Amino acid sequence: MTKPSPVLADVQAARERIAGHIHETPVYSSELLDAHTGARVVFKCENLQKAGAFKARGASNAVFSLDDAQAALGVATHSSGNHGAALAMAARRRGITAHVVMPSNAPAVKKAAVVTYGGHVIECEPTLLAREAALAELVAATGAHVVHPYNDPRVIAGQGTVALEILEQVPDLEVIVVPVGGGGLLSGVAVAMKSLRPEVEVIAAEPAGADDAFRSFGLGRLVPQTAPDTIADGLLAGLGELNFALIQRYVDTIVTVTDDSIMAAMRLQWTRLKTVVEPSGAVSFAALLEHPERFRGRRVVSVISGGNLDPDRLPW
């Protein structure tokens, strides 16, 4: 059965549903970074969100959308980290169990976060096939309700609440730059933004070493992710089908950035914004550094998607 695509009303309903379960995150700016990029940049700090990433929004919307009978069996997912922690957090708030299948090479700090929130971690080999197989086995054994990290209309609607906050915080924005991996954040933000402010340019930023969204967007068909190689470990997933359909409809363009640009963006955000940003969260600002001509002189919102990383494994 085809999943229904979320619309603006779903995003607005999600905002009401998750109020009190998430933070309305702040926006930061820096005159030094404006001078560095030639743009007027505002950073939407989802690295300061509960569980350290925007994922708290979609996971909370999905968990609190369940009826009591569904919720009683618990929830399950596969995740490289941030979604798993967010789902465990939301499940704990509802008083239910969360099971999270994680690849064996996921950062230790992200596995620890799931456990800290009361989630059960099931390790598997670091391939998508292994993750999906382990999840299917888990669901067969427990009956838990699957909450996909991004290819889920409830998750997409929850992530789209980022855009509703941005429009209130930065009413004069001209461009928004959003990282893309599986496409949950990008598709949700794009639906909300284009529904309310169609003149705002929505740009996705993706690591060059994991560029399936860039290739899919250019070719007009979903291209599978194969052998991704990037320091942005939160953006290794391939695009979801539902996400891609929304991206085709609402996103203006996708650009890629190198790992060197991601590291440069991280350094600037750490030293100038004084805020901890993980590699995946720095990808949007890396786009401004690597493609300055697109943004020069414009009012740009750069979404920092997360701040979860192991301090003993900094990319530099």
From TrEMBL:
Cofactor (UniProt): pyridoxal 5'-phosphate
Q: Which CDD domains match?
A: Thr-dehyd
Q: Which residues form the Tryptophan synthase beta chain-like PALP domain?
A: 19-306
Q: Quick check: keyword Lyase in the entry?
A: yes
Keywords of this protein's UniProt record, alphabetized? Lyase, Pyridoxal phosphate
| Alphabetized Gene3D superfamilies for the sequence | 3.40.50.1100
One Gene Ontology molecular-function label: pyridoxal phosphate binding
Q: Which Pfam families match?
A: PALP
Q: Output the GO biological process annotations, alphabetical, semicolon-separated.
A: D-serine biosynthetic process
Family stated for the protein in its record: Belongs to the serine/threonine dehydratase family.
Put simply, this protein is called: Serine dehydratase
Q: Source species, please?
A: Kineobactrum sediminis
